[in-house]
Amino acid sequence: MATSAFQIEGATAEDGRGPSVWDTYTGTPGKIRDGHTAETACDHYHRYPEDIALMRDLGVDVYRFSVSWPRVRPGGTGPTNAAGLDFYERLVDGLLEAGITPMATLYHWDLPQPLEDAGGWLDRDTAHRFAEYAAITAERLGDRVRHWITLNEPFEHMALGYALGQHAPGHTLLLDALPAAHHQLLGHGLATSALRAAGAPFVMLTNSYTPAVPFTGNENDLAAAEAYDLLHRRLFTDPVLRGRYPDLTAFGFTEALPFVKDGDLEAIAQPIDGLGVNYYNPTRLAGPAPESPLPFDIIEFDHVPTTDFGWPVIPSGLTQTLVELTEDYGLDLPPLWVTENGCSYTAEPAADGTIPDRFRIDYLAAHVKAVEAAIAQGADVRGYLVWSLLDNFEWAEGFHQRFGLVHVDPDTQDRTPKASFDWYRNHIASRP
C-alpha cells in the first residue's frame, strides 16, 4: 500500500512545518481544479491510527509513505523541526505495532519553498541539502525504518514541474529542465550514501515506467518511441545502474552535459537494493510535427478502456515493463518492486452504504496477473503496492480523481472501505 505526505497529511502549518512548493502552487489561482487545497487533505496527521487500523484489517504487510521534507526541516536548511519528526516516529511505531513494515520515501515532490527560492532542483546545492535531510531523518527513524526510498518519480517531477509547468513549482523550461533531472539523481546518490552511513540495510529509487509504443512501424514513429524511452526510462535508470547517461543526440545534446561535474556519476551509481516501478499505462508515440520542440508526439490509444483520468487500461504493459527492465539491464538490475499501481474511478456510496467499484477490482486483478506473468518470464519482483489506500489530494486535479480503496468524504473525513478493499483483503488472505 502506498501514499504520499502532501496528498494525505494535512496539518500544513500545525507543528512547525514550513511551506513547500506545492503549498505555493495550490495557493496560486487557476493552478488547481476548482481551487482545492491540501490544507486538510485526508487529515492523516490526526487520523493516522484509524488509517493504520484500516491497513491492518486489509492485511497489508508493507506500507510505503513519504516523509515531508518541510515538516522535518522547514527551511530546507538550518534547524530541524523536532515536532515534525515526532509525528513520523508515532506513525512508524504504530505501523510496527500493527505488524506492518514501514517503507519511507524521502521525497515525493514537496520541496521546501526556501530551497525553490534559491533555485530548487535546477541548483545542484539542493542535492546536498537533500542528503543532509536524509541523514537527519535516518538518525531519528533508522532504528525502526529499514526500507528507504530516496526519490519518487524524478521524471514526472522534472517534466511536469520544471519542463511543462503542470505541477509545482510551475516552470515551463522544456529541455532546459534537464538540470533538474541530474540534480535529483545526484541527490539520490548522495542521500544513498547518507542512509548507508546511518546503517540503512535497504535503499531504493522509485521511477515511473511506461512502455514506449510506436504508433506505426514507420521509421519516424520508431525513432519517436526510442527518443521517448531515452527521456522517460533510460535518462533516470542508466546513470543509477550503469554510471552513465544514454546518448541524448536525439534531443540536440551532442557534447557532454554541462551540468554534470566530476564525481557526479560515481555518486549517482551507488549500489541499491531494489528498483521501484510505478506503472499506470503505456505511452503511444509518433514522429513529431515540424514545429515541435521535442522529437516525438504522444498519441492516444484507440479502442481501449480508460480510467476517469483518461489513462488507457493496458495491464500487459506492466508485464512488458518488468520483463524489459530485466532483459535490458541484466546483471546490473537489482530486485524489482512495483511501488505504485492503481486507477482513478469515482465511486459513491450506494443506498445501503456500500461503495461498489467493480472497475477498480477488475483493474487490480488484471495487473496482479500481469505481475505474475512477468515473474513467470524471469522478472525478480519482490513486492506489489497499490496506489492508494485513501481517496486523496490528486495534485492539479484536487479531490476530483479517486484512487483509494477507501472512500474519504472531503467534508467530514469519514472513511468507508469500498468493494475493492474487500476484494484486495480476500486476495491477500488467499495468497500462500
| CATH class membership | Alpha Beta
User: Structural class, judged by helices and strands?
Assistant: alpha/beta
Topology as H/E string? HHHEHHEHHEHHEEHHEEEHEHEEEH
Strands in their spatial order, largest beta sheet: 1-2-3-4-6-9-10
The second-level CATH architecture is Alpha-Beta Barrel
Any idea how many domains? 1
Low-confidence stretches: none
The name CATH uses for the topology is TIM Barrel
Major pleated sheet: 7 strands, parallel
Estimate the helix proportion, in percent: 25-40%
Q: What's the total number of strands? A: 12
Walk me through this protein's architecture.
It catalyses: Hydrolysis of terminal, non-reducing beta-D-glucosyl residues with release of beta-D-glucose. Its EC number is 3.2.1.21. GO terms for molecular function: beta-glucosidase activity. This is Beta-glucosidase. Residues 1-22 are annotated as: Disordered. The protein is α/β, with parallel strands linked by helices and 432 residues long. The protein has one domain: Glycosidases (TIM Barrel, Alpha-Beta Barrel), CATH 3.20.20. It has helices at 5-8, 21-26, 44-58, 69-72, 82-97, 113-117, 125-141, 154-163, 178-197, 219-242, 264-268, 316-329, 358-376, 419-430, and strands spanning 62-66, 101-107, 147-152, 202-208, 212-214, 274-278, 283-286, 297-299, 336-340, 381-384, 406-408, 415-417. The strands form 3 sheets. It has a 7-stranded parallel sheet. Helix 13 links the parallel strand 9 (336-340) and strand 10 (381-384). It starts with a helix and ends with a helix. The mean pLDDT is 97.
